[in-house]
Amino acid sequence: MEKGDLRKLFSIPVIVAALGYFVDIYDLLLFSIVRITSLKSLGVADDQLLGQGIFLINSQMAGLLTGGIIWGIMGDKKGRLSVLFGSILLYSLANIANGFVTTVDQYALLRFIAGIGLAGELGAGITLVSEVLPSRLRGYGTTIVASVGLLGAVVANFVARQFDWQIAYFIGGGLGLLLLIARVSVIESGIFLKIKAQTVERGNFLKLFTNRDRLTRFLSCIFIGLPIWYVIGILITFSHELAPAIGFTEPVIVGDAVMYSYLGLAAGDLSSGLLSQWVRSRKKIVLIFIFLTLAFVLLYLYAPVTSSAFFYFSCFCLGFGIGYWALFVTIAAEQFGTNLRSTVATTVPNFIRGTVVPITFAFEFLRLRIGIIPSALVVGLVTIVIALLALRPLSETFGKDLNFVEED
């Protein structure tokens, strides 16, 4: 690194983006952690926990899908900071309201609204950090954001252990509102301000579909992340149901499964980010981590050891394998010009989160026909094959100059 690089890496935009993603992950994963406790307190029977859980997580993911489009377009039209402020205000208020629900339908509506708010945080943060840092430091900056942010799942687990699920939602909303104060000192991206002063069309989501090359890049950026949310949305979220079917006789706590998987994810993001800087390639590292994910899925589903300690170890390994999340979003940001960068960087991770809806539907459809473990394996293998195929057409973006626009 050159003199002064550390100061740039730990500048206010990077720190605030990292803290924002921390609160984002806390709120995003809190439902997975308190799913069983909260649904039981609302009177849901034990045999309905899985079905109602899938309904609620799909409501949240549908919100993420919707919000991804809204905030992505706004980020390119109005600026990166407008998204950072608006999204966190929405999901903070929704999570506070979530603590007052008395029915599953109210729960679902507020998870949908919270999902819309949560959709803007990561994409806007990664876009801002990518544009304010020199190209040689982008990978380090986005790695810091992801690694710090993912620890929000760990804090969510500890808070859920210490307080009732309603209080855990209140705390998440309160943390978000406090973060708004820190955001006052963040300045807008200079690259965006330069484009804003020009007569260039910005934030046209439909423009992604009017050119074959742009559409291919967009879809490829989405599909390389499929294994990430297969692991989180199926193997981790429904570990309470999967663990006994695998053969684990000791009780498994979903919150701990989430915590250990996200510790692994933070370690994986740190490792993949540093490796991509050292080998000067995003694609090679993503390829390695997709294959690691495959290996750890097989370990999780078929390892002969059945102690709870080993189960949590396998959750950590799964998290490490999918620890190319930061690289995945960075690649999306680097593939597109400034007039569409926020749109892509915000929609891509949320479209991936939204794929939890068809993934869970496929899992549930197959579960009723071939069993819970074979269905988990089949769905996982399909997501990995799709990710490998999607990685091939993407160009290498390490060190790419981001001061360009997408032409008509």
Straight-line N-to-C gap:
38 Å
- CATH classification class: Mainly Alpha
The CATH homologous superfamily is termed: MFS general substrate transporter like domains
Kindly report the CATH topology.
Answer: Growth Hormone, Chain: A
Q: Helical content, roughly? A: over 70%
**How many strands, what sense, and barrel or not for the largest sheet?**
none
Give the percentage of residues in beta strands.
under 5%
Give a brief rundown of this model:
The protein contains 20 helices and no strands. With 408 residues, the protein is mostly helical.
What are the main properties of this structure?
408 residues, 0% strand
Structural features, described:
It contains 20 helices and no strands. With 408 residues, the chain is an all-alpha fold. It has a single domain, classed as Up-down Bundle (Growth Hormone, Chain: A). Helix 2 runs antiparallel to helix 9 (165-183), helix 7 (138-150) crosses helix 17 and helix 15 runs antiparallel to helix 16.
